[in-house]
Specification:
The protein has about 230 residues and is mostly helical. It has helices at about 5-25, 25-40, 45-75, 80-115, 135-145, 150-160, 165-180, 185-195, 200-225; strands at about 125-130, 130-135. It has one domain (about 5-115, about 130-225). It contains nine helices and two strands, in the order H-H-H-H-E-E-H-H-H-H-H. The protein is globular, with a radius of gyration of 19 Å.
Length: about 230
């Protein structure tokens, strides 16, 4: 069954909006966290792209959740609820970034002390499997739950649609659009460049972890003073 033209055009416009936002502001906002994480885990190009993809998957999941909530419970229709929500989600993102940074730093120190020069393994933090970066997903999920202005406008406009599924689809399309951004390539390039200096990998890992921790602390301070 064909979609009504108005809805079909809204889907296309939303996906396009995601592409535009993902290629500009979204990339600049997420890049410091992604590159710090990639440096911390000592990723190469492939692992850098993978970690970025998983981070983006967390954001897309968060957008879809918000869309579903907006469609079923009219979330954010009351502006008085938005500020407390933003404060607590921002605080959560800051705490998670800080914890991930601390975890990377502690993991790096443990790996360095346990390494005998012959049997060193790459840094792996909180993985469900050898290929899934759980912490990258959690960071992306917590970041996505902090509502950006384009997403807020989309959530509010989606309330005009007759069925809750439309809000879910619109936010999902928006998230997919933002995920198809230069951030994927930049994440891979970061891993590739850092991998060119293996003798400095221990220091780049520490620096990446420390930067992520500082970013987390700054977000926490921002959330408290919001």
């Amino acid at each position: 069954m064909a979609l009504p033209a108005e809805i079909a055009n809204s889907y296309l416009a939303t996906f396009t909006l995601g592409l535009i936002y993902g290629s500009t502001l979204c990339t600049s906002e997420c890049l410091p966290y992604v590159t710090s994480y990639i440096a911390g885990i000592g990723a190469d190009f492939r692992k850098g792209v993978t970690a970025t993809f998983i981070y983006n998957s967390g954001r897309v999941t968060a957008y879809a959740i918000l869309g579903a909530l907006a469609g079923t419970s009219k979330l954010f229709i009351n502006n008085s609820l938005l500020l407390p929500y933003q404060k607590y989600t921002l605080l959560t993102f800051g705490i998670i970034s800080l914890i991930v940074g601390i975890g990377i730093l502690l993991k790096g120190e443990h790996s360095s002390s346990a390494c005998n020069g012959k049997n060193c393994k790459p840094l792996r933090l909180w993985r469900l499997t050898g290929r899934f970066e759980t912490s990258a997903f959690i960071m992306g999920l917590s970041k996505g739950l902090v509502v950006c202005p384009p997403l807020l406008a989309l959530l509010l406009s989606s309330l005009a649609f007759s069925t809750p599924i439309d809000s879910f689809i619109l936010t999902l399309l928006f998230g997919l659009g933002t995920a198809l951004s230069p951030l994927l390539i930049l994440g891979g390039v970061t891993g590739w460049l850092l991998n060119k200096a293996p003798l400095l990998s221990r220091w780049t890992s520490r620096i990446g972890a420390l930067i992520l921790m500082l970013l987390g602390v700054s977000i926490i301070i921002n959330a408290i003073t919001l």
